[in-house]
Specification:
With 301 residues, this protein is of the alpha+beta class. The chain has nine helices and twelve strands. It has an eight-stranded mixed sheet, with helices on both faces. It has a four-stranded antiparallel sheet with strand order 7-8-9-10, with helices on both faces. A hairpin with a 2-residue loop joins strand 2 and strand 3. The site of coenzyme A has 20 residues, from strand 4, helix 3 and helix 4.
Length: 301
């Protein structure tokens, strides 16, 4: 047996995975210490554990987004117990989870080992993902926009129509989180965005929001040129603001994880929203996520 030994995880590893997650500060709902999150990855992704010196010292997880050769492997988690950091365990799990030559991405933490590890694996760092939190009452829904409750199947079907990728299973899992609610956002009666809000406590907010390219792709938004680009940016911005303004959390506060170049970031900061954590989008191909349009789940994108 080599050390570390990397093997696929199963339900029997939930406690050991939670121990590693807690040792690395992951105590939130929908993180490695939350059995519902790991069970979703066991069912729809791949989870491995690293055994080192007779115990589970790390875990990692991926989720395939899309199908066929263009499918993207999203690294959802990679965590090693602090006393085993720097011993090659992270690298060994990555080698088991990621195939060189395939499209890959992750939201890297700012931990000193993370960026070098992913850079060596062929991914470059492109933009920060900002964890923005604030008061929903400080936001006004943009004129003409309405947000309605939807079903996970409905949000998944709209996203599939727009992107060709079926995320219904993820919308179902997000909808099952505390406060989970799939939504659509429309302007003048036309549905332009679909996603799911949810999460416990400080995690509550937009989990993932997909956009209709007919409204947010400058080439398809009608006007063309600079006016088309501006109109498309405004639609992407307003979809986020409309959904956030529609939320009704018990403490009045919500979260949105946005790429720093997203057009909703500036108005949120202007409304007093604050940036907490920051991750880095790392990828083999920067075209996999458009930072002016994507509203990704940090875990599952
Ligand atoms: C990030 C993490 C998963 C990496 O796992 P690990 O087992 O510590 O990492 P490894 O030992 O396999 O590899 C770390 C690499 O970074 C390199 N490295 C460390 N510090 C570095 C620095 N300042 N500059 C450049 N390279 C550095 C090491 O040399 C090593 O590469 P090498 O093996 O080719 O020499 C682990 O440290 C961890 O759990 N960190 C805390 C939680 C976290 O932030 N996870 C990342 C979520 S995206």
């Amino acid at each position: 047996m080599t050390d570390p030994r990397i093997r696929d995880a199963d339900d029997g590893d939930l406690d050991a995975i939670a121990r590693v997650a807690l040792a690395t500060g992951q105590d939130e709902e929908w993180s490695g210490s939350d059995p519902a999150y790991i069970r979703h990855l066991l069912a729809h992704g791949r989870v491995v554990v690293a055994e080192h010196a007779g115990e589970v010292a790390g875990f990692g997880a991926t989720r395939r987004i899309g199908s066929g050769p263009a499918a993207v492997t999203m690294l959802c988690d990679l965590f090693v117990s602090p006393r085993s950091h720097g011993a090659g365990i992270g690298q060994a799990m990555l080698a088991a989870l990621w195939q060189p030559g395939t499209p890959r991405m992750t939201f890297s933490s700012l931990h000193a080992h993370a960026l070098p590890l992913y850079t060596r694996a062929g991914l470059d760092a492109w933009w920060p993902l900002l964890y923005l939190t604030g008061d929903v009452a400080a936001l006004r829904s943009p004129a003409g926009w309405a947000v309605s409750a939807a079903t996970a199947a409905g949000a998944g079907a709209l996203e599939r129509d727009w992107t060709g990728i079926d995320r219904t299973a993820d919308h179902q899992a997000w909808a099952a989180r505390p406060g989970g609610q799939p939504v659509t956002a429309s302007r003048a009666g036309q549905v332009l965005a679909a996603g799911t809000a949810g999460g416990a406590d400080e995690e509550y907010g937009i989990v993932h929001l997909a956009l209709d390219p007919a409204g947010t792709d400058p080439g398809m938004a009608g006007a063309g040129g600079r006016d088309g680009a501006r109109a498309a940016d405004e639609t992407a911005r307003d979809a986020v603001l409309a959904v956030l303004a529609s939320l009704d959390p018990p403490d009045g506060r919500a979260r949105a994880c946005l790429p720093a170049p997203h057009p909703a970031v500036r108005p949120l900061l202007a409304a007093g929203w604050r940036c907490g954590d920051t991750d880095l989008f790392m990828t083999t191909d920067p075209a996999l996520l458009d930072p002016r349009r994507a509203v990704p789940s940090p875990a599952l994108a």
